[in-house]
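Newbie here. two chains, one complex. Structure please?
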Amino acid sequence: MFIALFKLSRPVNVLIAFLTVVIAAELAGGLTPLTNALLAAIVAALITTGANVINDYYDIAIDRVNKPYRPLAAGVISQNMALNYFILVYFMAWAIAWTLGLPLFLIAVTISILLFFYSYKLKRTVLAGNLTVSFATAMAFIFGGGAVFHYKQALFPALFAFFFHLGREILKDVQDQEGDGQDGAITLPLKYGIKKSLLLMTIVFIIVVILTLIPYILEVYSLWYFLTVCIGVYPVLVFVAFQSWKNNSPEYLGYLSNLLKVDMLIGLLAIYLR
Amino acid sequence: MFIALFKLSRPVNVLIAFLTVVIAAELAGGLTPLTNALLAAIVAALITTGANVINDYYDIAIDRVNKPYRPLAAGVISQNMALNYFILVYFMAWAIAWTLGLPLFLIAVTISILLFFYSYKLKRTVLAGNLTVSFATAMAFIFGGGAVFHYKQALFPALFAFFFHLGREILKDVQDQEGDGQDGAITLPLKYGIKKSLLLMTIVFIIVVILTLIPYILEVYSLWYFLTVCIGVYPVLVFVAFQSWKNNSPEYLGYLSNLLKVDMLIGLLAIYLR
């Protein structure tokens, strides 16, 4: 049963949330005090756990058909137990966030509630789901930065993360549209078509390029930052934007989405070198 | 054609090699001199590019059947051109490595030649392929550390990386055995069976646990390191080792392999906190 609860939490997701906050804190000002940075990362991991559990809770009917091996769909965990587990981890997240001060507590509560509504309603609406996920990721940067008392330095990374994730989320919607259509979800490409979705993704990536140039132009970030984004990040964005129009097969879009994921890390490196 | 050469290089792989060396340098002693760290990362990216190109060069017959969309199999790039591209990037890698001093030059040349032989022969032999890949990854840590003049601090990370990757490579062989069998490759599970392979993986993970405890016992690494590996790394290793015996389906092993990939990042975090 503990293994089933572990699987229900989606550990890969949870670990990524944890690492995002650690990286955010390190980027903003370094991991001191280390306890704060790690507590903030634990809060993010707990909120992600709760969000993943409540997601499966609301998706149980769909999962019984498409993912019958998931702990709730398979009946290894009862719905009641999942709900209790969700409440417990959210409560723990809020309790720990409280020790980090009022601003972080409020961010944690806001994001948790938003992620709850994501599963409850938002993800079945056009774009709102994508915006929620991108916003939550962006806030992870503010959260990590805030935990080590460097809110200001976290602003640019959070802004970049928001648009970068938004573009990638749209790409993933195009990639998954067939399965989503069968599930009855209405995502952007299903409502407005592939071309309009890819156009929006391209516009979002143009916004990423413009935004990431600003701190260099303002001389807040260094030449190393500028060179790294110019050599490492922009060519990949241009490549993805062009290629996605030429080849829409799910396999190829999956490959482009992976490319973006690694490119995001190069972006983080650029900020680290700022 | 430039896009075809870009695809032939396998950019995701190349970016990961680049980032591994940057992380290795940062872990060993910090990114100073930054130029050295970035040049070392570029060398790693070039060697990886060459290794990926020569891999497709030797796999062209298999790819024509299984991956007809790859640039060489599709005939977008000629074999002769791929060979020239391979020689060019290897030559560039060695030239840049030369500026980093004799030890790094020798490491770069050794690893390049080893990766060439990997495609030419080793990957069709039992375990030698896995050992080559794990060794190359471990050497990336020495290479990154050496570039910023911190060879000694890179030793433990390199050692951990070697065994961690080895365990994961064996898991991936079990996952891919069906496809590998059709391709005529003889991997560990195809020669000795799934059970013996998983047993070897479990033993390798036990070695990882023992090795990673040593720097804490020797008081080289701190309590933060110890807590992070105890909470973040070991439970995942135990989980993967147990679950892989219970469920051998390729999908589930793919999930476990992903879990290990993220767990590797937690391991890097632990070393960072040392």
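Moderator note: Chain B has a mean pLDDT of 93. The longest helix of chain B spans residues 151-183. Thread marked as resolved.
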